[in-house]
């Protein structure tokens, strides 16, 4: 790794520069823009910084997002967990990391994933979708709590 | 008599007020408990459910299932109300399912629902404080059908464990087959899946069976019936699944069972079908020793009587 690159990575993950907000680090390479879109951050009020294809000792390549003045909701964390289970979330208050966690996917996801089955009741009544984690390994599979269809990782349709 | 005459009073108690929405909600031990209890209900016509009311919400018509639930209730001295077609009810005016449930639960003690959309029974169960029984939700689940199939199999074979079962016909769209195979897999059964390529068992079910190490093979030539099985479970092949009507005719004739086709079996094989049949099973099999399809219909009442009593906490 060149000195410049190292410096660049150091700068981009310098979380203390953030007074209050969230740093989403170790995003699976190539998912940064998806996460940005899914969290609706591209036209949000907050200042957002994004780093793509950064060098990472742990992952080779990674993406990273810093959001100023925002803490994520449960649904947003679930969405990150689906897109990039290895990500780490650092919550910053007063320039300090107050908590650092992986986006632990709950066993039950409400209002996070859309069921693709057109004859699922969740697509015909005004109710939030609900999915249960069927398998975490070798790939994530979710089961719709209503129609019971299984969706593998690559086909998950985030709301 | 009270619940303490039952083999497992703890389990019996846990069933009171519970919903029967999907076979996935039940452990193996619970399934066996219901089947054991059902044996005691075969000849029971005590008025255990006197004064109780079931509401049968048939948003999708199914005369057979509705009559079976109604007969079960009447046999035990209970009353039925409900509708047989959503077109004539307030639902047609656009009321939400949850609202319909919250209104009708004031009229009854237990709810039976059949609906064309998958997951409707789950939603009804979430909306209601009363027990809800799923009478079929689209292509998803029909737990009383699965239980009556299991009851029939156990009655005829004395066990559920380690049986060899062939499923025949439309294995892609048949919820009856999907549900039954998932339960029988827990009992270490082996399967032969005989279907046309275009109606083969869905990938995710095959993957689950493979993952759990279940012995299972697919066969796409109906002319080669697996003669080493204990049970032949046949299903209806529906015309609307085919683009080409000629192909439909070819397939449905190829998957038809008759007495001659069963001559290759060294001993009588149990022949099951969820009914109604069209021409999948020739009438010349009706007095065949292994023919079990009309017995399934009779067992349906027994299983429904059992569940209604169990959920309402009124056991013999
Ligand atoms: Zn669904």
Give a quick set of tags describing it.
heterodimer; A: alpha+beta; five-stranded antiparallel sheet; four-stranded antiparallel sheet; 11 strands; B: about 325 residues; alpha/beta; Rossmann fold; 2 domains; five-stranded parallel sheet; four-stranded parallel sheet; binds zinc ion
Provide a descriptive summary of the structure in words:
The complex is a heterodimer of chains A (159) and B (316). Chain A is an alpha+beta fold and 159 residues long. Chain A has 3 helices and 11 strands. Chain A has helices at 3-12, 32-38, 74-83; strands at residues 20-28, 48-56, 60-68, 88-93, 96-101, 108-110, 113-114, 130-135, 141-144, 150-152, 157-158. In chain A, the strands form 3 sheets. Chain A has a 5-stranded antiparallel sheet, sandwiched between helices. In chain A, strand 4 and strand 5 (96-101) form a beta hairpin. Chain A is globular. Chain B has 2 domains: 3-141 and 300-311, Aspartate/ornithine carbamoyltransferase (Rossmann fold, 3-Layer(aba) Sandwich), CATH 3.40.50; 143-297, Aspartate/ornithine carbamoyltransferase (Rossmann fold). In chain B, helix 8 links the parallel strand 6 and strand 7. The termini of chain B are close together. Chain B has helices at residues 9-15, 28-41, 63-75, 97-104, 120-127, 143-157, 175-185, 203-211, 245-254, 259-262, 293-311; strands at residues 53-58, 79-83, 110-115, 132-137, 164-168, 190-194, 216-219, 231-234, 270-272. Helix content of chain B is 37%, strand content 14%. Classes of the chains: A alpha+beta (159), B alpha/beta (316).
